[in-house]
Structures are given as C-alpha cells and as structure tokens.
Design goal:
115 residues, alpha/beta, four-stranded parallel beta sheet, globular
C-alpha cells in the first residue's frame, strides 16, 4: 500500500485534513466543487459514475461525500444502500438537479445524511 492509500484509510483527525469525495457525472460540476472545496482547505477526490463511487467509498475513509443521485450505472440511491451495507460510515450528502420530495425521502432512508 502506498502512503497516499494508507493516508486515506485514516480518519481526518489523524490526517490533519478533511477528505471529501465529489461524485458527479458532470465534469463541470466536479471542477467547480473541487475548486471551492480546495480553496476552503479540503482534500478532494472525484468519481464520475456509480461503480467508481461505490468502490471509492468502500476502499477509502472519506469524511464526507457529495454524491449526485443521477449518475451512470445503478445511480446514487443504490450506491448509498450498498455503501452502508459494506459498513461505510462516511457522511453522504446528496446533490442533484432532479430534486423531488420522493428522491429526498428515499435518499435519507438509504443512508444519506442530507439532501
């Protein structure tokens, strides 16, 4: 395991910097979020589809994940369920252009912390 991978398996207090996952299929949204978060002092990683997002959540210790509900693959809702079933404790915040009350309720049921 390289030092970067080992570092991401540690909690934020041990790393000294908050690690954020930005998961969205829109590269422009990822770019804007990355720039804003890094300017605020956060360490940022990105994914662009459901499969890579799920793998990242399972493999790394993120302090928070900003996840688009409408990504290629199984979608954000399925990612929440699978990540929680794998024991992921990352705080997940849903971001989406397709905002509905049903999506919000379902996301919270599946493990999102905010919508």
């Amino acid at each position: 395991m390289d030092s970067a991978s080992a570092n991401h398996s540690m909690p934020a207090s041990a790393r000294g910097q908050t690690l954020v996952l930005v998961a969205d299929d829109d590269a422009g949204i990822r770019l804007v979020l990355r720039h804003r978060l890094e300017a605020a002092g956060y360490e940022v990683e990105e994914t662009a589809d459901s499969q890579s997002t799920l793998q990242a959540l399972i493999s790394n210790h993120y302090d928070v994940a900003l996840v688009d509900i409408m990504m290629p693959g199984s979608g954000g809702l399925e990612v929440f369920s699978k990540a929680r079933s794998e024991g992921t404790r990352t705080l997940i915040i849903v971001s989406t252009a397709a905002s509905t009350m049903n999506n919000a309720v379902e996301a919270m049921k599946r493990g999102a912390h905010d919508y």
